[in-house]
Write a structure and sequence with these properties.
Blueprint lengths: L1 H26 L4 H22 L5 H25 L7 H9 L4 H13 L4 H25 L4 H9 L2 H14 L6 H27 L8 H28 L6 H11 L7 H8 L3 H26 L2
C-alpha cells in the first residue's frame, strides 16, 4: 500500500492545476484558444528538442520511441476502422486520435520518478518522444482528416513545429553539437511550463462545456481502449520479448507497463481546439480518464510494479 499512497500523493498536484484551469476559464475568461497555439508551436517543440539532444542515441534507446509510435499508430488505425461501423461522421476521427495517445509526459514522467527514481527519466522521456511523434503525425492527420481533405491534412502535419524540432534535435545530437549551460537552464523553465499549461488546458476545456451532454458510447470506448487494450498490447509485447529477442530487462518491463496505463494525453485538447474538432468532447474524455487514473494507476503500480 506504500506505493499506492506514494503515487496518489504525487498525482494530486496535477489535479489541482486542472481545477485552477477550470476556475480561470469559467471566472477569469481565460481562453484555451490562446494557450493551445503557445503549447504546440513553442513550448512542446523546445521540450522535445531538448529531450532528443540529451538522449544517448543507440539501437536500444531508439527502439523505445519506435515501439510507442508503432503501438500508438496500430491502436489508432484499428480504432478508426472499427469505429467506422458505429459513426459515419468525424467522431470516428477524434476517437481514433484519442485512442492512440498516452499521457507519458504530464502524467507518466512524474509518476515514473515517484516509483523508480530519477533513473526512470530517460526511459519515460523516450516513451514521450514516441507518443508525441504519433500525436504530431498520424494522430494529427486523422483528426484533421475529419475536417479537411487528404492534402490539407498532410500539409497541416508537415507544418507542425514539433516534427521540425524532432529532426533538428536528432541532427544536433548525431553531430555532437554542444548547446551550453545557458540553453539548458532556459529549457528547464519550458519543462515546467509544459506540465502546468498542459494540465491547465484540460480545465480550460471543461470550462467551455456548457451543457455537459455526455456521449457515453464515445467515453466508454475511449476508456476501454486506454485502460484495457493498451495494457494488454504492451503485456503481449513484453511476453514476446521475454521469450525471443530479450531487448529489455525486467525493470524496463515495469516502466513499459507504467507508460501503457497512463490516461489519455492532455495535449489532444490543444490540437482539437486548433482544428475545431469537438474539443469539448475530448476535454471531457481527458478529464474522466485522468480522474480514473488517479486511482487506477496507483492500484496497478501497487499490484505489479513493486
Amino acid at each position: 500500500m506504500e506505493i499506492f499512497f506514494t503515487v496518489l500523493l504525487k498525482l494530486i498536484p496535477l489535479y489541482v492545476i486542472i481545477i485552477l484551469g477550470y476556475i480561470g476559464g469559467r471566472f477569469l475568461d481565460i481562453k484555451k484558444e490562446t494557450i493551445a497555439p503557445l503549447l504546440i508551436n513553442i513550448i512542446v517543440p523546445v521540450v522535445i528538442f531538448t529531450g532528443i539532444v540529451t538522449t544517448k542515441i543507440n539501437l536500444s534507446t531508439l527502439s523505445i520511441p519506435i515501439l510507442f509510435f508503432l503501438v500508438s499508430s496500430s491502436i489508432s488505425l484499428l480504432t478508426y476502422y472499427f469505429s467506422g461501423f458505429i459513426w459515419k461522421d468525424s467522431t470516428k476521427n477524434i476517437l481514433s486520435f484519442a485512442a492512440g495517445t498516452a499521457n507519458t509526459g504530464y502524467f507518466g514522467l512524474p509518476v515514473a520518478i515517484a516509483i523508480f527514481g530519477n533513473s526512470a527519466i530517460i526511459i519515460a522521456s523516450l516513451a514521450l518522444l514516441g507518443t508525441s511523434l504519433y500525436t504530431n503525425s498520424l494522430g494529427y492527420f486523422l483528426a484533421a482528416r475529419g475536417q479537411h481533405t487528404f492534402k490539407e491534412s498532410l500539409i497541416k502535419v508537415l507544418k507542425l513545429p514539433i516534427l521540425h524540432a524532432f529532426f533538428i534535435g536528432l541532427i544536433v545530437n548525431l553531430l555532437d553539437i554542444k548547446l551550453g549551460a545557458i540553453y539548458f537552464d532556459m529549457a528547464k523553465n519550458f519543462n515546467g511550463a509544459f506540465v502546468i499549461l498542459g494540465m491547465m488546458i484540460i480545465g480550460l476545456g471543461l470550462a467551455d462545456i456548457k451543457d455537459f451532454s455526455y456521449d457515453f458510447k464515445f467515453i466508454g470506448l475511449s476508456l476501454f481502449i486506454k485502460f484495457l487494450v493498451w495494457p494488454l498490447v504492451m503485456l503481449t509485447i513484453i511476453l514476446v520479448d521475454s521469450y525471443t529477442f530479450k531487448i529489455y530487462d525486467h525493470n524496463l518491463y515495469k516502466l513499459l507497463i507504467l507508460m501503457a496505463i497512463v490516461p489519455v494525453a492532455t495535449n489532444i485538447v490543444s490540437y482539437a481546439t486548433i482544428l475545431k474538432a469537438q474539443p469539448e468532447k475530448l476535454s471531457l474524455v481527458v478529464f474522466i480518464s485522468t480522474f480514473f487514473a488517479l486511482f487506477y494507476v496507483p492500484l496497478i503500480s501497487a499490484l505489479f510494479l513493486r
